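Entry 12.
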Amino acid sequence: MIARRMKIIFVIAAEFLIFALALNIPLIFAQKEIVPAQKDDSVYAELGKVPKKAAAQRNPLERDADAVAAGTKLFEQHCAECHGFEGEGARKGPSLRAHQVQQATPGTLFWILTNGVVRRGMPVWSKLPEPQRWQIVTYIKSLGTAEKTPQ
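Predicted 3D structure (tokens):
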């Protein structure tokens, strides 16, 4: 009785295998393609997706001496939890001192701040008044790039 059940199970499994191969259905035990690991710069890829008109927008507070100080306070309240208190990056958010961010236009940063990158956990800050968003952008641009430490 047991031998007969085993034979039936074997025949069903063999028929399934033939059927799967005939239809080119990938099998659970099929070997997966191995792709070499690459550096993940995709967290900064959103900077390149900003509309050109938005990216060209100029910071109206660019020359305002008080904008950096105000932006610092706003950054500490709204951004530091994810991006670190000096914009160096933290567990949740990438470094804002990275070359990609510092080379981005103020309009690009303003657009990202306004619209967020929700799928990556960056909230939308459109409810923050526009002048305050520009103050944060002014602060971020004042950070400069992260210096490399000698090894």
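Annotation: The domain at 44-143 is CATH 1.10.760.10 (Cytochrome Bc1 Complex; Chain D, domain 2). The two ends are 71 Å apart (CA to CA).
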